[in-house]
Design goal:
Keywords: 4Fe-4S, Iron, Iron-sulfur, Metal-binding. This protein has 16 helices and 13 strands. It is an alpha/beta fold and 468 residues long. The longest helix is centred in the middle third of the chain and has 16 residues.
Length: 468
């Protein structure tokens, strides 16, 4: 008798795959094409045409300089509490007067309904239009904060010419900008006086100031690099700026020239004017012919600030022969002091505008800036967290500009008292005011974290020594 073998049943479908959980990445890149926000959403600009918007003259004429003008633009989209908050800041705390180009105001709350809450939370507003409630009341300023926190004025070798590094100088051609940032490191000199700060003034006529710079540079062949700044070079009449740059290019020992202008972002319309573009091309061609590196350094702190007009201005500069356009941002709480904010900004800079992420500075120890500043350990963590996402050449260095020392990568400190928030740094060169100081290279120089970020024991120590 033959036994029947059991028949194997073949399933007609595969079992559903079991989902395997993945950890994901701390940061997920998503390309975000640039968009010019609709300026007609503001009641005060409802009838502004594109031709007007893209006019540098219209932008300058319509800058917001006071609360009355801001009301005209915003209408009733924010309530009276905001204006009262702003007025309180301007009367007692602001170190910079208000000056906001329409281009910059248009990047605040760009794609959501405007409201008091939305404007208060906006990262661009937080540093361009600070209000009293932003600032700390326990420690509005660090005890060691100072008006000229980097001692640039002390290191002037001619009016407006700071010689801090052995081979580099900073040339401040003027003391105004097309826009005033609340955290400005040069708040001692730049902009109008405020109730909190009676500003220093440049006293020489521009032509005499420029002559003094050129005379010094010709007499000091060890200087090869000039940062041409202010203020902002976009406020120098172009023919005057071009003349100054051409004179620099005649000095054989000058090999690098960097133009510092936040206006590439804040007022890109300026850098797209035909006379400016044509003049920049003449300078760039002369620099290339003489083997001099000509670059533009701008200052963007948040991805919201990048629009197609900014990208067009940056690309135009590159098209006419400027070697590089680089960004130097500032780390600020409430603005960009997270790895996601920094990476969003860097990808937008490098991938969408052709601007190279270069530096992020820790906010300097100026008065009434403690609410913006971050501690050194936070900056170190941010440097760690942004590594590996961007191309190496486009990964910015986070630096601490240490008084009497200069820029140092945030991991270069020699000692760090985390409890009291005091880091110590060394240097390898003398500034122009230390030529006779034999011990300058053996000293340790201190930098201070914001006190509210310290552990309780550290905060207690500072309270006990507040009046020392």
């Amino acid at each position: 008798m033959t036994q029947t073998q059991p028949v194997e049943t073949i399933p007609t479908s595969r079992p559903a795959p079991v989902a395997v959980p993945t950890a994901g990445q701390p940061y997920e890149y998503r390309r975000a094409p640039l968009v010019e926000p609709d300026w007609t959403r503001f009641p005060g600009w409802r009838h502004v045409t594109r031709d007007q918007w893209e006019s540098a003259q219209w932008q300058r004429v319509n800058c917001v300089k006071n609360i009355k003008q801001l009301r005209t633009v915003l209408g009733d989209t924010v309530d009276e509490t905001f204006y009262a908050d702003l007025e309180a800041d301007q009367k007692a705390l602001a170190t910079m007067s208000m000056l906001v180009p329409p281009q910059m105001l248009n990047t605040m709350v760009p794609f959501a309904p405007m409201s008091t809450e939305a404007l208060l939370a906006d990262p661009v507003r937080r540093y361009m239009i600070p209000v009293a409630s932003d600032r700390r009341t326990d420690w509005p300023s660090h005890p060691y904060a100072s008006r000229d926190s980097l001692h640039e004025h002390d290191m002037w070798v001619a009016e407006g010419l700071t010689h801090r590094y052995p081979t580099k100088v900073l040339a401040e051609l003027l003391s105004t900008c097309p826009q005033y940032c609340g955290h400005c490191t040069r708040m001692d000199l730049v902009g109008n006086s405020t109730p909190a700060v009676d500003k220093l003034k440049l006293t020489l006529k521009p032509v005499d100031r420029y002559d003094a710079h050129i005379t010094y540079l010709k007499a000091h062949p060890g200087v090869r690099d000039v940062v041409v700044s202010g203020g902002d070079v976009a406020n120098v009449p172009w023919r005057n700026l071009e003349s100054y740059l051409m004179r620099l290019l005649e000095i054989e020992t000058i090999r690098d020239i960097r133009l510092a202008t936040k206006a590439l972002m804040g007022l890109p319309q300026h850098w797209l004017q035909p006379d400016v573009v044509e003049g920049l091309e003449r300078v760039a061609r002369t620099a290339a012919r003489r083997g001099v590196n000509l670059a533009i350094h701008t200052h963007v702190n948040h991805a919201q600030s990048l629009t197609p007009l900014v990208a067009k201005a940056a690309q135009t500069a590159l098209d006419v022969g400027v070697r590089d356009v680089r960004n130097q941002g500032v780390l600020m709480r409430g603005v960009n002091a997270t790895s996601a904010d920094l990476l969003d900004l860097c990808f937008a800079l490098q991938g969408e505008t052709g601007i190279l992420p270069y530096y992020f500075y820790m906010c300097d120890m100026i008065p009434n800036a403690e609410h913006w500043r971050v501690p050194v350990w936070h900056a170190q963590q941010l440097q760690h967290d942004i590594m590996g996402y961007l191309p190496g050449y486009a990964t910015p260095r986070i630096v601490c500009d240490v008084p009497f020392v200069g820029k140092r990568w945030v991991h270069m400190l020699t000692d760090y008292d985390r409890e009291r928030g005091i880091s110590y740094w060394t240097k390898n060169y003398r500034t122009s005011i230390e030529s006779a100081d034999l011990e300058a290279l053996n000293k340790r120089y201190a930098y201070y974290d914001p006190i509210d970020t310290l552990p309780e024991a550290g905060q207690s120590w500072w309270h006990a020594h507040r009046d020392d």
